[in-house]
């Protein structure tokens, strides 16, 4: 098969997988609000969805924490963005807990999510701080690994069409 056909099949498979998961996830809610359903069933469903959301949010920053740990530095992590987002999230969690007295399933996912942001900041800061403190030069903060000096800076206009790739 050509790559275009494979890509279309992959996209179609992804679409149908999402439709299937969403349909399956909506069945308990439809049963809970049906005439034979009860408020207790709907509340239980909401709690389950809240805890599943917590599990998914726990997994969201795991790759970033791993990359910061593996590369021993922050890379493209923005301390300010994650820090302000975490502080705002904690303010929202405190409001949900103490002002509106919401259930655990409604504020726990946010607490976990914003704690994960602080974990990313802590791991990245630790390696950035210890690297600077020791005077050691850490890995370069590039998306693609390369050896310094092996890639020359050229623009396509520097060479004739086709041979500018040879410099890279």
TrEMBL record:
<dbReference type="Pfam" id="PF04193">
    <property type="entry name" value="PQ-loop"/>
</dbReference>
<feature type="transmembrane region" description="Helical">
    <location>
        <begin position="107"/>
        <end position="129"/>
    </location>
</feature>
<protein>
    <submittedName>
        <fullName>Uncharacterized protein</fullName>
    </submittedName>
</protein>
<keyword id="KW-0812">Transmembrane</keyword>
<feature type="transmembrane region" description="Helical">
    <location>
        <begin position="45"/>
        <end position="69"/>
    </location>
</feature>
<keyword id="KW-0472">Membrane</keyword>
<dbReference type="GO" id="GO:0016020">
    <property type="term" value="C:membrane"/>
</dbReference>
<dbReference type="InterPro" id="IPR006603">
    <property type="entry name" value="PQ-loop_rpt"/>
</dbReference>
<feature type="transmembrane region" description="Helical">
    <location>
        <begin position="76"/>
        <end position="95"/>
    </location>
</feature>
<feature type="transmembrane region" description="Helical">
    <location>
        <begin position="12"/>
        <end position="33"/>
    </location>
</feature>
<keyword id="KW-1133">Transmembrane helix</keyword>
């Amino acid at each position: 098969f050509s790559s275009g056909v494979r890509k279309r099949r992959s996209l179609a498979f992804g679409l149908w997988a999402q439709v299937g998961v969403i349909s399956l996830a909506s069945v308990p809610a439809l049963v809970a609000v049906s005439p034979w359903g009860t408020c207790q069933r709907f509340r239980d469903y909401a709690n389950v969805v809240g805890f599943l959301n917590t599990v998914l949010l726990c997994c969201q920053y795991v790759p970033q924490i791993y990359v910061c740990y593996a590369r021993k530095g922050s890379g493209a992590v923005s301390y300010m963005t994650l820090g302000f987002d975490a502080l705002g999230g904690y303010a929202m969690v405190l409001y949900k807990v103490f002002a509106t007295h919401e259930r655990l399933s409604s504020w726990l996912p946010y607490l976990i999510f914003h704690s994960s942001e602080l974990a990313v900041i802590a791991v990245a800061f630790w390696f950035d701080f210890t690297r600077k403190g020791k005077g050691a030069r850490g890995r370069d903060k590039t998306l693609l690994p390369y050896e310094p000096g092996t890639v020359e800076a050229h623009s396509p206009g520097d060479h004739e069409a086709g041979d500018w790739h040879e410099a890279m």
